[in-house]
Amino acid sequence: MIPLSHFLIIGACLFSIGLYAVLTKKNAIQVLIGIEFMINAAILNFVAFGKYDKINGGGQMFALFAIVLAAAGVAVALAIILNVYKHFKTIDPSKIDNLRN
Amino acid sequence: MNAEQVIFYFFAALLLLSALIVVTSRNLVRSIFLFFVTLFSLAAIYVFALADFIALTQVVLYAGGVLVLMLFAFMLSNKELLNAMEPAKRVFKVKHYVGIFISLAFLFILLQIFTERDFSQLEWIKSGSPISKNENTIHLIGIQSMTFYLLPFEILSVFLMMALVGAAHLARKDKKI
Q1: Treating both helix axes as pointing N-terminal to C-terminal, what angle do A28-50 and A4-24 enclose, rounded to 10 degrees?
Q2: How far is B160 from chain A (nearest CA, A)?
Q3: Residue B54 to residue A60, Cβ atoms within 8 A
Q4: Residue B34: how many CB atoms within 10 A of its CB?
Q5: What is the average pLDDT across A28-46?
Q6: Which residues of A touch B81 (CB under 8 A)?
Q7: Cα of A48 to nearest chain B Cα, Å
């Protein structure tokens, strides 16, 4: 039986790694991977707490919802990245600094 | 230490190690493929939280869908990107220090909370009924998604269609809006 706090600690480490990627990476795809790590850490917490909630199944249901939302978000974000690449010829987030004109 | 714990900590170590390599690697292809390893070991950890259906969904949706999408995005924006990654300056910039500092501070706060507050002593966790090991969680999820969580389920389906239409609209060829 694995104690609950170990799941939470793993989730915290994963979240911080994702945060680091979001803050420092110079490539939009890697920033996206960082966001995915953060979402996955949240889902891990949902699942870890959902183990104790058999009657409503809230943890597992919302973990499922979050996975589907993240997948849809990735599809849209990658479409945006491709458009940005077509327009600016780079996907470095710090170089993309002008709006329509 | 029994077999369950050994396997759990093995996968936890694999998860954190591969996640660290993903974010520190300079090679985008390597980091995308290691992302695959991270998602798989996360699915293994879900199994230990007795969420086998979530683990399967993780493998199918993330490892199957998201990863292929990322590889496609990488290949479609490929050439400039590899050139941009090329200057391998070994010196750390200020930005990196700030990033490391903020994420370590965040980790510290989270760990502080998790060690100070014992979540397994919460009222609803102690009084609630945990899922036992030979329970059929898929059965449970099926019933719940058609009764108690019907509204979020339906909203999710509408949202998925919106995301599909939006992604197709964003990625189309002609620029006339």
Answers
A1: 170
A2: 6
A3: yes
A4: 20
A5: 92
A6: 27, 91
A7: 6
Nearest to A63 by CA among B54, B118, B123, B169: B54
CA angle, corner A92, sides to A87 and A95, nearest 5?
A: 75
Task: Kindly report the CATH class assigned to B3-170.
Answer: mainly alpha
Q: Which residue has the tokens 């990322």?
A: B70
Q: Which residue has the tokens 């979402």?
A: A39
Say whether B166 and A76 touch across the interface (CB within 8 A). yes
For residues A47-74, give the mean pLDDT: 87
* Residue B50: pLDDT band with limits 50, 70, 90: confident
**A86-to-A32, A79, A95, A100, B72 alpha-carbon distances in Å:** 18, 11, 14, 14, 15
B171 touching chain A per CB within 8 A: yes
pLDDT digits (tens, 9 = 90+) for B85-130: 555 555 566 778 888 999 999 999 999 988 888 877 777 777 777 7
Q: What are the structural domain ranges in chain A?
A: 4-88
CA A13 to chain centre: 14
Checking if the pLDDT of B164 tops 90, the result is: no
Interchain proximity B130–A55, CB inside 8 Å = no
Helix, strand, coil distribution of chain B in percent, nearest 5: 80, 0, 20
- Range B148-153 contact pairs with CB under 8 angstroms and sequence separation of 24 or more: B148/A56, B148/A57, B149/A61, B152/A61, B152/A65
Tell whether the model's pLDDT for residue B177 goes beyond 70. Answer: no
- CATH match for A4-88 among 3.30.420.10, 2.115.10.20, 1.10.10.10, 1.10.287.3510: 1.10.287.3510
